[in-house]
Structure formats: C-alpha cells, structure tokens
Amino acid sequence: MKKFSMSLLCSSILVLSLSAKDIQKSNFVYIDDNLLKNSLLTILRDKLTTCDKFQETTKQLANYLVFKSSEFLNVEKKEVQTPVAKFNDGIKIKKNPILISIWRAGLSLLPTFQEYFKGSSVGFFGIKRNEKTAEPMIYYKNLPKIEKDDQVFILETMLATGGSLSLALSYLKETGIDEKNIIIVCVIAATEGVARLKSEYPQIKIVAAGLDEELNDKKYIVPGLGDYGDRYFGNDEEQWFEKLQTHHA
Q1: Domain boundaries, the chain
Q2: 114 CB contacts (<8 Å, ≥6 apart)?
Q3: 113-117 — which CB contacts under 8 Å span 24+ positions?
Q4: How distant, in Å, are the alpha carbons of 47, 111, 119, 121 from that of 38?
Q5: What is the DSSP letter of 145?
Q6: What's residue 47's pLDDT?
Q7: What's the pLDDT at 247?
Q8: Is residue 129 annotated as a catalytic residue, yes or no?
Q9: Helix/strand number for the chain, H first, E second
Q10: pLDDT at residue 239 above 70?
C-alpha cells in the first residue's frame, strides 16, 4: 500500500473542497475576466492554431501576464515635472524582479518579461519526471544570486498537478527566499495544482490567464490546450533537448 505525505493528503482534501469559483474569489490566485485575454486564450486552446500563430499569441498574452503580475511589485513614490506642472503622485518599481523560467515551455514567456524588466537577473530550472518513481526531479538548474527581499517571478505556462513547481519552490525556500515574495506566472492553472501549492506554500501568489477544473489520466489539464512546449516549439521535448545540446556542444 502506498504511503501518502501529509501535504499531499491536505492537497487532496483541498481539491475536493475548492471549485474554480472558490479559487477565483481567493487571495491566492489572480484571474480576471478580460475579454481580449479570453480571446487570446481561445486561440491557444484551438487545436487548429498553427505553430506560428501559437507563438505570436503567446507573446501577446504574455503582455497581459506582465501587467497582472506587476501589480504585486514593490514601488516607491516619484515626483516628475510634466510639460505643464509638477506631478507628485508618480511611482517607480523599487527593484526589478528575478525571472526564473521552468524549462522548456516557460521559455516562451521569458522574452516578453525581459522587455519590460530590462536587466533583470534570470534563472532556470529543468524539471522532468523520474521514470522509475514518477516523481519530478531537477535535471538542470542555473540560478542567479537572490537576496532575501528580492521578488521572484516563476514562469511556467501550465500548472497541472503542481509537482514541478512544488519542487522548484522547495529548492528556492531552502536558499532563504521569503515565500511571500514569490509570484507564479502561468497561462492555465488547474484547481488540483492550485490546491496543492496553496496547502504547501500558502503565502505565494499565482497569476494565471485561465483556470480549468480537471486533469485526465495522463495529468493533462482538461480542457487545457495540450502540451504547451510541443505546440510552441513545434517539436517534441526530446528533439528540442537534443538540438539544445548540439547548439551548446
């Protein structure tokens, strides 16, 4: 008989008790009903969308995610002189967030975030499933120096079970990062994954463009949009990783 950890048990209970409407009303996940955002998300969901169109739409939707996630950045007041008069109620971002991309689909969001937060330090996690244990494992990491008070954006397009993000978060917390300074940015989140992260890391925030309530037996989000990395890069993960290794050889 398999043994279940207390955190996974709590996550299972939360899955049963939290609906999409409950989550949207919480202060844990931030999703709005923007019409333009919803139209872009519909294009990404459509199986007939070509790779080129998928990439173009991802960039457009990433702009929305930048603006939504930036609402949680620390700011300070700034006075400026307009051509007409002094403006006393301006603000500026105190410090650019650290950007951490989860390979490989998270790379699709990174360029847009870098456009807005120029000079931000960037880190990477490569996470895949261990074929023997079926548990996520880190096969690559490259992180910049992160101060305790730094705010961190973790870019991961699909939040399904929450396993990969939970592993990345546990590593980041071990380095001393304050949980409340972490913002997960994703395209679609599933209630199961949200419930797990809410149980394990109650102070983080999640910004998502869409929220779906089901996972199928392969742990794909339903209705979801399929494998984000495959559709964005136009090939499967093994082919992509082989090309990456060849490029850096």
Answers
A1: 20-71+100-248
A2: 99, 120, 122
A3: 113/62, 113/66, 113/153, 113/155, 113/185, 116/66, 116/70
A4: 16, 22, 30, 30
A5: -
A6: 95
A7: 42
A8: yes
A9: 9, 12
A10: no
Annotate 154-223 with three-state secondary structure.
EECCEECCCHHHHHHHHHHHHCCCCHHHEEEEEEEEEHHHHHHHHHHCCCCEEEEEEEECEECCCCCEEC
Q: What is the predicted pLDDT for the residue at 70?
A: 95
Q: What tokens does 19 get?
A: 């609906």
* Burial class of residue 210, CB neighbours in 10 A (0-12, 13-18, 19+): buried
- CA atoms of 188 and 239, how far apart (whole Å): 25
Choice among 42, 50, 129, 175 that is catalytic: 129
pLDDT tops 70 at residue 60:
yes
Catalytic-residue membership of 22: no
Q: Which of 52, 133, 217, 246 is catalytic?
A: 133
Which of the pair, 53 or 104, is modelled with greater confidence?
53
Annotation says 227 is catalytic: yes
- Identify the pLDDT of residue 27: 55
Architecture of the domain delimited by 20-71+100-248: 3-Layer(aba) Sandwich (3.40)
Q: Convert 165-203 to b/e letters by CB count within 10 Å (16 or more is b).
A: bbbbbeebeeeebeeebbbbbbbbbbbbbbbbbbbbbee
Token pair recorded at residue 142: 């490259």
Q: Residue 155's closest CA among 196, 193, 104, 199?
A: 104
Identify any residues that bridge with 87 across adjacent strands, giving them in sequence order: 80
Residue 41 clears pLDDT 90, i.e. is over it: yes
To the question of pTM greater than 0.70 for the whole model, the response is: yes
Place of tokens 């992160």: 146
133 is catalytic: yes
